[in-house]
Every structure is written in structure tokens, then in C-alpha cells.
Amino acid sequence: MKTTLKSLAVAGLVAAAVSISHAQPYYATGDFDGWNNGADQMTGGPTNYTFVVAPGTGTAGTEFQFKCTDGTWANTWPGKNVMTKYDAGGGATLYFYPGTIADGWYPTANRVGYADPGNLAFELAGDFNGWSSSADYQLNPIGSGVYSNSIVITNAGTHGFKFRTPGSWTDIRFGSDFGNDGDNATLTTTTSPQTVAVQLDLPNGRWLAGALAPPPATNTVTFQVNMSVQAALGRFMPDADAVQCRGSFNNWASTFVLTNDPSALNPNLYSGTIDIVTPPTGINYKFWDSNQLAGNNGYESPTSTSGGDRTYTLAAGPATTVIPAVYFSDMSSSLAEATLVTFTVNMSNAVTTASVPFDPGVDVVSVNGDWIPWWAWSNFVDLPYLAYRMTNNPVGSGLYSITLTIPQYNSLALTYKFSINGVDNELPAYVNHFRYVRNLGNYTLPLDTFGTAVPEPQLGPLTVGAPTGGYIRVSWLGLPSAFLQTSTNLSLPAWVNHLETIGYGSPSGIYSTNYPMSSGALFFRVNNP
Asked: What whole-number distance in Å separates Cα of residue 58 and Cα of residue 88?
């Protein structure tokens, strides 16, 4: 009996299957959205989620409250609201870590944190200091939203305390979790007196008080981004524009500027090294282009997170790390010719992020994206969204479509979202659809659903049919540059390239070929250069 096996490869790596995880949706709500629960879905998952409150939402330095939910008021975290302040840009970045967490820190489950806005101060007030203010109990900021100090407790025992704005019970104040006016936090000492190390980690929503508190670790990290495609598209001018790396490690500030070497083999490779002082934790970050033509107010849209942040886990101890270079927005390949691309979205039961139902008799559906580049949301002066108005087809259905020309040299990857009446109201800010153009000349994107973000993988399932007529039917969801490879031995694989299969596609993006049968086992994979 002859056995026909298959495998799938991306960039030369063999994988047995392609899987997509579906995380529980969580939401951020608070003063910034009028406590409109269920309107602002967080991105990421399944162990950590993020929501970005857009710059300009509030006034820099003013306090606001928020919490995280599962889209209902029955399950909210923490029990009381979290109070913090808007950052220098009038925005904020919020985090949620669901489930039980066994790392020795508190709280032990469902932590809510936020990027340090850079205008906070904290102290401990408890029974060990008469619940009063003292410089000896104030915490010192050590960077990346971490505050630390060593305090002396005179008497042995279990002590209650709260973190608070120094000298104030009317500003930020919390205990066992980050909820304002919640239960007291506690710490236990066994000797009199005893020095206790205290750490407060805002982005991770956790605190630790005890002799075993781990010391902060310094990670020296080098970030790298390849701007070649952006330069070719005219979205980055090396002589005039700047590249920055912004993230939770520097409060999303604009101070970390990357540089290039004009004499290097790739002068469009930009890099920078920074010291990050923090306990072991994951950081979120993005690269930023001052040209702004990339959309998202200059921020990139990494494909792996559908417009979310890039992530990296810092080492537990001091370390020097060079993160491998990535392309800005993961754009590494481009169209060999201008291509007509058809977008279709299902508007049945569509609701905006403000919970306003779509009215097909009145409302206009448009598409916005990075190849245009992004037209200005809510710009009712020249109504740019009307040029990208979608047509109800067939009339009376919930389907709306439009065919647009994607120019030559544009990335095969398209980042886009739909709009009702020109407003950014389909998905939370910076959360987009992401799909690939899989055929040159003409290509119809798979059907989208309004309000559901799509992070489409580069390559889809590779299917191998049953042998018939002396041939084996092999099909895959690929890109115009992808080609089939075969091998007869996976123990010592020698993959044979079949470049003749390049371009064996259709407007549906399905690539297929009839491969001649042979004796013995035969393995298949797809290489996507």
C-alpha cells in the first residue's frame, strides 16, 4: 500500500498543522467611554489583553477610572474601579491578565494594570505608621511602571496597609487589588524590627511585599526594524523622517529614536539599544514612522496581532538581548503588478463600537486602508470616505462590496477596516482586518463581517488528494510567489523545488497542481519566500 503524506512550511520551516486560537473577549470601560460596557474590546489573549485609550481622549494629568469586564456587569475586575491618570498625550494603555497566576505576587487572579502615565507617586500608609504620611514609606520609581523601596516594620505580626498618592486619601488609593477603596493589603513580619522590600508593578497589575521580593533586573535590549518596503512605497523618507520604538517599557514616549548606517549593506535597517529596568515581565511595543503615511497615527500594524502590539518577555536576570529585525508592519513582499481587489463585508446585524445599529436605508459603508493611505476619519469637510463607498450587492442583502486598484509595489499584506458614515466605528482604535492579496491581476478577498477582526495567516491548509489517473492533486492557499516542494525522506530531507508551480493560482487565491505519482512515500510542503 502506498502512503501519501503532506506537510506545510513557512519560510522553510515544516509544520504539521495550522491552528488559530480563539480567546475569550474582554472589554475595557470607564470614564473614557462613558462606561459603555462591551463597546471597547481588548486585543490579545489568552493570558494577557490590551486596550489603548486614544490620545486626546482626556486631559493630560487628570484622573479617570476604569475596569475590565467580560462584556457584562456580572463579571468585572477589579471589584472597585481602578483610578489612574491620563498620560502626556491625553491617552492611556490598559492591561488585563485573566485567570489564576502563581508567581508569588498579589493579587493572585484577574489582574488589571496600566502603562505608567509618568505623573504618579505612591507611598504606603498602614497600621505600622499610624496610617499617616512619611518619606520613609514612599516608593521610588525605577522605570517601566515599577515602584520600589525597603521599609522598616517595628513590630512583628500581620499588618494592613494601602498604596496611595502621598499624603492623600482622596486621590489614588488601593489595597489587595488595584481597585480604589478596596480591601487593605497585608504583609507579615516575624522579627522586631524587620526590613521589608516592597514593589509595585503597574503594567502587570501586581504588588509584592516581603523579604523575598526579587530585585529589579536590567535588560539591555536592541530593537531593529527594516524600513525597505516603506521607503520603496514612499511612506518613509530616510533623509527627512524618523523611526522610533515606543512601548510599555518607556510609557509609549517618543524619546527612543532608532538610527541607521547609511554605508551598511542595508541602509534601511534601523536599530537602537535601551536599558529596561524591571522585574521579569512581558513588554508591549510598536515601531513608529514620523511620515504618518503608514496609518494609525504613524504606528505600524504588526500582522501577528492584527493591529495590536508586538510583545517580548524580558529575562529574569540581567541580560543583553538583540531582538531579530522585523519589517515595519511585517511588510516583506510586494505586488509585481497593479491588481484589482474586491472587498466584501456582511453588514447584517452590524453595530458600531458605540452600540449604534447599522441602518441600510440611511448609512454609508466605506473601506479604509493602508494602501490608500488611510483617509482621515470623521473628516466631514471633504467627505473622503465617499470615494471608497461600498455598494449593496445584491440589493436588499446584507452584503456590501467594492473593487479597488491596489498599486504595483504595494505590500501583498493589506491592513484595513470598514466604516459607517466615515467614522472609525467598526473595531477599537488600532485594531484592523489583515489579509493577503493571493493572486495578481484580479483577486477577491474572503467575505468579512463588520465588527470581526481578521488576522489572516500567510499560508493556509495544504491538501493532498487521493491518487487518480497517475496524478496526485495538491492544493494550498498561498501567495503569488509561493511554490511546491517535495521530498521522499523526512529523516534526511532533501526538498526539491518545483518553481513551475509559481502562479498556479486563481482569483480565489487557491493554488493547485497535478503532481505525477511515484513509488514510495512522498512528502509535500509549500515554500513562501
From this structure: 10
- Which secondary structure element, helix H or strand E, spans residue 228, and what is its range? helix 228-232
Specify the pLDDT at position 266.
Answer: 83
Nearest to 244 by CA among 210, 278, 216, 272: 272
What's the pLDDT at 22?
32
Grid cell at residue 434? 489583515
SS3 for 123-138 is EEEEHHHCCCCCHHHE
Is there a contact between 157 and 184 (Cβ–Cβ < 8 Å)? no
Length of the chain (residues): 529
For residue 345, the number of C-alpha atoms closer than 13 Å in the C-beta half-sphere is: 27
Structural domain span for residue 373 = 339-449
Q: Are 332 and 529 in contact (CB under 8 A)?
A: no
Closest Cα partner for 489 from 516, 464, 521?
A: 521
Instruction: Summarize the confidence of residues 229-242 as an average pLDDT.
Output: 84
From CA 338, how far away is CA 405, in angstroms rounded?
Answer: 7
Same domain, 409 and 379: yes
Categorize the per-residue pLDDT at 394 as very low, low, confident or very high, splitting at 50, 70 and 90.
very high
In this prediction, residue 331 carries a pLDDT of: 74
* 261 and 224 part of one domain: yes
How many CB atoms sit inside 10 A of residue 428's CB? 23
Domain annotation covers residue 189? no
Ranges of beta strands (E only) in 154-268 are: 157-164, 173-174, 185-189, 194-201, 206-209, 217-226, 243-247, 257-258
> Do residues 175 and 51 share a domain?
yes
Local structure of 417: helix, strand or coil: strand
The three-state secondary structure class of 298 is helix
pLDDT in tens, 106-132: 999 999 999 999 999 999 999 999 999
Give pTM, 2 decimals: 0.47
Q: Do the bridges between strand 146-153 and strand 140-143 make them parallel or antiparallel, or are there none, so unpaired?
A: antiparallel
Distances (CA, A) of 528 to 49, 60, 98, 496: 31, 46, 36, 14
User: Cα(first)–Cα(last) distance of the chain, in Å?
Assistant: 35
CA 57 – CA 250 distance, rounded (Å): 20
148 membership: H or E segment, kind and range: strand 146-153
444 and 490, same domain (yes or no)? no
Query: Which of 285-294, 393-402, 436-445, 448-457 has the weakest average pLDDT?
Result: 285-294
pLDDT at 504 over 70: no
